[in-house]
Design a protein that fits this description.
The chain has 255 residues and is α/β, with parallel strands linked by helices. The chain has 8 helices and 6 strands. It has one domain: Rossmann fold. The strands form 2 sheets. It has a 4-stranded parallel β-sheet, sandwiched between helices. A two-stranded antiparallel ribbon has the order 3-4. β5, α8 and β6 form a beta-alpha-beta unit. It is globular and about 50 Å long. It starts with a helix and ends in an 11-residue tail after the last strand.
Length: 255
């Protein structure tokens, strides 16, 4: 099929889709947003979630005038597992609504949008050009039996394309454990220990890695993955997440 005929065919399919499923804002449902994106009001609401300042060492929300060169008050007195941290925003408002709709309401149409938001966060990171490969926090096979989509696995390819960095599976989850949501802070690190291992056949020695996840509360899960990657020989590991839910960071000391 020639490029012209293929383009015509794809255009016809999109035209039919627009008739059957008129473009609407994926958050509020308002019709005809530009380019099938969020409507102006929801864009403004999302911008507010994204504008909250955060610590680039642990991802925790900080005050507007807090200095974070050496970390925030929550993390500066402890070792930093990750070499740097970026996020799309705080887990509140429009961003939280988008994430909940995607993860828990079957809104697969939000996959590309959220993945590209994560990619945009990566593009804002001063360390992106030094990343050798991106990877993601994996799910356990037991979780995949009960959940149709694992959010981070679905979003990672879109984020990698947006950030123009290679993506590879470097980790595997070997144990499910209790869900982290609702666990007391001191139980999160113990619950997640031993859940992750390096994927078979992977040798990350000397690599600079970007680790992707969707939502962090205390960071126990992402920092456990950082620990596993560094113990396998990764030179540095940076973290990028969609949203931080505001918990105090749980920083492991053996990294």
């Amino acid at each position: 099929m020639s490029e012209t005929r293929q383009f015509t065919w794809q255009s016809a399919v999109r035209a039919i889709e627009d008739v059957l499923y008129p473009p609407a804002c994926p958050l509020c449902g308002r019709p005809d947003p530009p380019g099938r994106d969020l409507c102006p009001d929801c864009q403004a609401a999302l911008a507010r979630s994204r504008s909250v300042p955060f610590c680039t060492r642990c991802g925790t929300t900080v005050g507007p005038f807090a200095g974070t060169t050496d970390g925030c008050p929550s993390c500066r007195t402890r070792p930093a597992p990750a070499a740097g941290f970026v996020r799309v925003g705080e887990f509140s408002g429009a961003l939280a609504e988008l994430i909940r709709a995607f993860k828990f309401q079957g809104r697969d149409d939000l996959e590309r949008h959220l993945g590209e938001l994560l990619g945009d966060a990566l593009r804002s990171a001063p360390w992106l050009s030094g990343i050798d490969v991106l990877t993601w926090v994996p799910s356990c096979w037991q979780h995949r039996l009960t959940r149709r989509t694992h959010a981070t696995t679905a979003l990672a390819p879109h984020a990698a394309r947006r950030a123009e960095r290679p993506l590879r599976r470097l980790l595997r989850r070997v144990r499910g454990g209790r869900h982290q949501v609702g666990l007391p802070r001191l139980e999160r690190l113990e619950n997640i220990k031993g859940c992750f291992r390096i994927a078979r056949g992977v040798r990350p020695a000397g690599a600079v890695i970007g680790l992707l996840d969707d939502v962090a509360t205390t960071g126990a899960t992402v920092f456990e993955c950082v620990r596993v990657l560094k113990r396998a020989g990764a030179r540095r590991v940076y973290v990028a997440i969609l949203a931080h839910a505001g918990g105090l960071p749980e920083l492991p000391r053996d990294v």
